[in-house]
């Protein structure tokens, strides 16, 4: 009799547990377990990158250029280890359709993609420069000089740098400065000497001292003229007296004395 009551109690407990579990499933009490199974992986955002990476975000913030203003970390770095291991993008992913972007070894000059405009140039470098600077190489090839024989980085040791002429050349006079050099010489065609009309005669004197001294000592109206007034716009151009004076004498006299200097001397020391 006692065994029968104990057995009935055990059976009742089994039925109660079974009924409770059925209610648990029916009412959705197991939903947290099911939700954990169906939840997607967390999605990384740019705000997450700075939680672990210090150097790259700081570099982009200070000198990122368009890598700061037009793209984000996750635009370039798709995925993250350990699920994704190939997270370093090729430059050609974004940079296309220009001759410069067809060059290999981008990191040779753009050493840090997070500061892409901080460019390091190797010695004796020319060919990569020509993919952008076509006007300059055309000038060098069409106007041969010793500059034509040099590599671009002989003068431009840093990208965008405009070197001082006196790094290599002794100035014509001690008081000449860089702007004086450039008023007559274009760096990529240095032997094609040109100058503006207001070029001070003192600059010319640094090479043509004798002519300058004669002109300064002369008491005629030529003394008042600058070198550039007569030698207009082109170096070594010798003007004709008639360009300013016309034909001042009768035709018979001009035939007898066709060379003005026979009577008036040289233009820098003209006589009345």
Coarse structural class: mainly alpha
Q: Enumerate how many helices there are, as a single number.
A: 16
Largest sheet: none
User: Element order, helices and strands?
Assistant: HHHHHHHHHHHHHHHH
- Which shape, going by the Cα principal axes? rod-shaped
Mean pLDDT over the full residue set: 86
Low-confidence stretches: none
Q: Strand portion, in percent? A: under 5%
- In whole angstroms, the N-to-C terminal distance is 158 Å
Please give the number of β-strands: 0
Helix content: 40-55%
Q: Nearest-angstrom radius of gyration?
A: 42 Å
Secondary structure blueprint with pairings:
Layout: H1 2-26, H2 31-38, H3 46-49, H4 55-63, H5 66-69, H6 73-76, H7 127-130, H8 134-142, H9 152-155, H10 178-184, H11 201-205, H12 209-217, H13 227-230, H14 242-245, H15 251-256, H16 261-264
Identify the notable features of this structure and list them briefly.
rod-shaped; single chain; mainly alpha; 272 residues
Summary of the model, kept short:
By secondary structure, the chain is mostly helical. Helix content is 40%, strand content 0%. The chain is rod-shaped and about 110 Å long.
Please provide a written account of the structure:
- With 272 residues, the protein is mostly helical.
- Among the domains are: 48-93 and 104-120, no CATH class; 193-272, no CATH class.
- 40% of the residues lie in helices and 0% in strands.
- The chain is built from 16 helices and no strands.
- The radius of gyration is 42 Å and the shape is rod-shaped.
- The mean pLDDT is 86.
